[in-house]
Task: structure prediction
Amino acid sequence: MTDVIFRPAELGDLAALTDIYNYYVRETPVTFDIEPRTIEQRRQWLDSFGLTGRYRCFVAVKDGAVIGWASSHRYNERAAYDTTVLSSIYLAPQLTGQGIGPRLYAVLFDALKDEDIHRAFGGITQPNDASVRLHRAFGFEPAGIYREVGRKFGRYWDVATYLRPMGGRA
Ligand SMILES: CC(C)(COP(=O)(O)OP(=O)(O)OC[C@H]1O[C@@H](n2cnc3c(N)ncnc32)[C@H](O)[C@@H]1OP(=O)(O)O)[C@@H](O)C(=O)NCCC(=O)NCCS
Result:
């Protein structure tokens, strides 16, 4: 088995990233999207990241195939939220539980450490023990539970929110 490498996401990764995301759209409440996303919709998502700055996307690649990503997004359009990012991480389902997520998140947070970011926000549909453990391990602290804010698969789901202090600038 070859090792996993990590690098910034590229346009050529779009189909694989869309396939992974749509698995979680169709099969799980992890994301509150209900309809699979088109390549064009995910292209707009991918275009929102840069090679510098607050909004980044890194992929994990194994045996030449993209197997997941970790990203930081704008948290809210209003300007005072500039220093908060929303972080996100997804691995192909067959490659979870092997310790790849922490390595990928480490690449993202290392890249962000000198950016003007004060807080990272994570929202985790409950239950998701692997994601909660990952976020706690990366310094995310519980910030409250939004009860029954999403309806998918005929039931309501809670979202546990987490905040992580970032390096930021005064
Ligand atoms: C969440 C995710 C990124 C974590 O990455 P990973 O490579 O699977 O993480 P690890 O294998 O290091 O597991 C993280 C921790 O959860 C535990 N864990 C893994 N799978 C688990 C499971 N199914 N149930 C309970 N605990 C689990 C691990 O033992 C580890 O615990 P530790 O830190 O105490 O050692 C990955 O599982 C994933 O992509 N899940 C599906 C998408 C998702 O939920 N994304 C997050 C949305 S908020």
Notes: The mean pLDDT is 97. Residues 4-165 form a domain with the Aminopeptidase fold (CATH 3.40.630.30).
